[in-house]
Automatic annotation (TrEMBL):
Designated name of the protein: Helix-turn-helix domain-containing protein
This protein's UniProt keywords: DNA-binding, Membrane, Transcription, Transcription regulation, Transmembrane, Transmembrane helix
Amino acid composition bias (Basic and acidic residues), ranges on this chain: 753-762
Xref: Gene3D superfamilies: Homeodomain-like
Amino acid sequence: MEEPMRNIIGKSYLRIFFYLAAFFTVIIIPFSYFLTNQYSKQALTEINDFISEKTDSLSQSFDYMLDNLQSYGLTMSQDPYISSWLKEDSETEDPLIAKEALSSLMNFMSLQPFISATYLVNMETGNVLDSVEGIHSLAEFKDRELINNAIRHRPAFLAFHRFEYDGRSLLALVIPSAQLKENRGYLVMVLDRSLLQKYLLQNRNNGNTEFSILDEQHSIVVGDVPSEFDHAAMNRIAEESAEQFTVKIKGNVYLIHHKKIQTENWQLYSIVKLKDVSGRVDRFQSKILLSCLILLILLFIGAFWNSKRSMGRFSVLAKQLQNLFGTRLQYANRAPFEEFTIIKSGLDYMMNNLEEMNSSRRNYQGLIKAEYLRHWILHGSISDAMRTELSYMTEIANNTDLNLAVFRLTGYSLFCEKYDYGSRKLLKYSIGNITQEIFMNGGYLCEPVDLGSDHLVLLFGCDTAKDSILGLLHEAAKQIGNWLGIQVVMAIGEQGAIRENLRTVYDRIYDLTFMNFLSGESKIYMQEDYDQLVKGHIVTLDESLIQEVIGLVKSGDRDRTHKVVERLFGQLQTLPYAECKVYLNIMLFRIVKAFSKVMDENDIKEGNQFLEKFDSLTEIKQWMLTEMDQIIDLAQAQTTGGRKNELAPEIADYVDLHLHDSMLTVEEIAEHLGYSGGYIRQIFKDTYQITLSDFILQKRVDRVKELLVTSDMPIIDIAERSGFQSRTTFFTAFKRVTQMTPSQYREQTTSTNDKEITNGQA
């Protein structure tokens, strides 16, 4: 028994697990009980304060209502027609005054919904003026007993009083409140108790709290009490003078708040059964305890897994050392706890993971900035509102001297084979960071922008000498190669700030990055390099044949590709040598640009030197046919594996990056990814069960819907930002998807949100 236990204790990962389990238990269990007790105390305190506030609020509301009704009754009694009618005697009785008094009475009744009936009683003439039925003789009036009871039981001062009549409990106000010698009549105002209770207690009663107002005889004036409360219980409660107390009725404990109604000698009580309140608290406490228990179990599992993963190998190593050195490690036999040194490596591992997580976090503001910059480049310009927003994130938006450079990754086909899609994005992000740091160290503003595919765009301020910018770009290319092992080809706009459409400049400079296939030089290319290459040559050959070859290769049509290549070289044979050589260079440039994603660029260097390896046009033609066949074979191989699994997500991501580009088409996506349009359509449809064209349209409409709700931008600006080419296209597409116009959608959504906010406030 001792030996197996010794072996268990000697295993570092089990020992560490037991220590961690004991530690977690000691921490979690007391903490969970402390947390539940604190929550219970805080919850009951907040409930008590909440009920107290509701009681105070209801007391003030009821005081205000009674005071208002008293004032209203006095105002009615002082009306000249009503006052005159009440003072009439049998000799001065005038039907016109009765008519005007009735009219005044009806007007007063229409303005105060809480009065169910009002009676004018002239004791001298023996008449009653009913607000509903008009004038009657008191002796013949059907509610004569109601009026007599109201007058007979009235208090000595102006106050409301409750009396019983015909099995009903009524609340009335009699004016004047005392019998005066000169008084000949009374105004009896009977209140609608149900409406009064509904108004005053609306949104105040809930499933746990009852509100009740009692008069001097401890009878209910307004409100309800729990069914367990009888008259004895009400008397017991009324004897308490404290504003807050608890009482036990029929085995249940109730929390009661008490407030006096200032206008009347009445008492307001809020009654809560503690069992109902504490039941919810207890259920939440149980959830807290259960959550802590689950957390403890998960910590046990995590501690065991981490201990075994981190410490298990160390136990094996200790055993191997013991076998290797024998008796020289006897101390280890007596004290296996020496293996605790492995804890340091475990902590180091966790700290390294934490640092990696912190370093890989992306700043949300950076994503918005990248989105605006992509919109700027792909649209060629940005609105004033967008420029203002962008200026808060980068000073480049305020720079009037702006230029553009493109970094294209060489050997992109090998790059795609070596790294998956996520790794490629991360490496391009690193290229942008390296370049940005070099420019910042040189004292210049710049912003790298990833537009997908095989290149990055760099926006920078150009209010400096040309040589300084070229030096920074050369340094960036050098450091990218040193740190990442990636070679890039750079091209830059002409010296001076960009004055034309940014999209046009971007397209032209991106084409210049393929100049290295013609010149073979390791340099930063400019427009003047291309102009110098074709200077003095007039090429009369139809370049559409090259585009036809490229299209046939992308579609995988091998036979037609061979036929068009034969036609192309048949025309080349008719050209003079110098023009034929220039055209071959241009043809090579177009082909390499079209298939840079799948061709190995290292096989082709400077165009002229490459062509000199061949002795005739026939050999060049044969090389071109072989190269086209290899590209077709490679594309067919990739359709059954490799990048096929990640191609659909890459297409979706490219759409997200270029959604605001109104020129975005399936063919453009296919060109950037190095596949035919039909192939990427099929891959996307098989993966997401939606056509690529419909996906682009749906994403654009979703962007419009989001901007319609979250911004007050004009609808035309929203359409432009979402990539729609024209107003007609935009309105047609939006209505086809949503069955309403953009204005109707914005109005309906705003109205719905307003209603939700209003309901939430209520």
